[in-house]
Design a protein that fits this description.
Elements (H helix, E strand, L loop, with lengths): L1 H13 L2 H14 L4 H20 L4 H8 L4 H23 L5 H12 L5 H8 L4 H22 L2 H4 L10 H28 L1 H6 L1 H22 L8 H26 L5 H12 L3 H11 L4 H9 L1 H7 L3 H4 L4 H4 L3
Helix pairs in contact: 1-2, 2-12, 3-7, 3-10, 3-12, 5-6, 5-8, 6-16, 7-8, 7-12, 7-14, 8-10, 8-14, 13-14, 13-17, 15-16
Length: 327
Amino acid sequence: MSETVLARARVLLTERFWLLAYCLLGLGLLIEIPLEMARQAIPVCLGAVLYFTCLKVSPRAVLVELRRPRAARRLTALIVVKLFGLPLLVFISSLWLPEDDRLGLLILAAMPAGMSSVAFADVHRGNVALALLVLLATSLLSPVSVPLSLELPRLLGKAQAHALTPSEVAARVSYIAVLLGVPFVAAQVTRRAAAPWVARQQGRFTPLALVSLLALIFLATSATRARWFEQGLSGLLAVLVMVSLTSLAFLGTGALAGRIMGREDAVAFGCNCVYVNNGLAVAYALAFYPERPGVVLPCILITVPMVWVIGWVGRAIPLPAAEARMP
């Protein structure tokens, strides 16, 4: 009986993740968590997502990925597309929008890959090692790449972008390095110290990572619930349409990659593109544009389409012809 319940729970967490995510999202709108408590708990949830995901990835697998033919060139190309290509695409596509909406979407597009993207790459049977490499690289580069991407409005005479000081850049690099490095190192220590246990529990780590993500969705929604309706219902619906189209554009990028790379690599990169680090986007928008709800709202509402678009990654990137013919 217990095994049956666990199997059903695993299916619910993977194939029907969007349903649970929306339930927690709705619960977050009903229950208010103090902002300071949420700020302390959110990094813990982010770390748990990465910890459980990294328990399935060995350093050897990452090294093997780096030693693949043209690995450095492939990784560099993916990073450039993720950190600069997508922001440019979103910015050009949104030039007709009001300035605040345009800036909010640009902040989203400039964000690094979300920590949960690695867990979803595993769910969709993608190249987890590549997804982790893109996550690490884009996260460590984001303190520099985000301000550069946000210079686009200034360069085109649309707005004045905020530039970080060297000390602010250093602080953000350190924060992100700790946030990523601690769970990764802890996972590898666990793998070495308790190898038999890790081998036995392999099937449970991805569901645990997704449970941590559900907690994160609830906390982020609850802590920012007052922002959702600052522009009224019509404003909320308009932003929902915009962020949904943005998520679909990110999905299209992954599908296009499927015609260039192998399916496992394309699925990994598709997850990196679709599941952005919206927690960092919300923090950035609140820190630098607290009095402009039009900038903040897209960073918050991206969760709504993101949790169902991520479920389409495996379907949008087709199987190779040889695999598709297999029964």
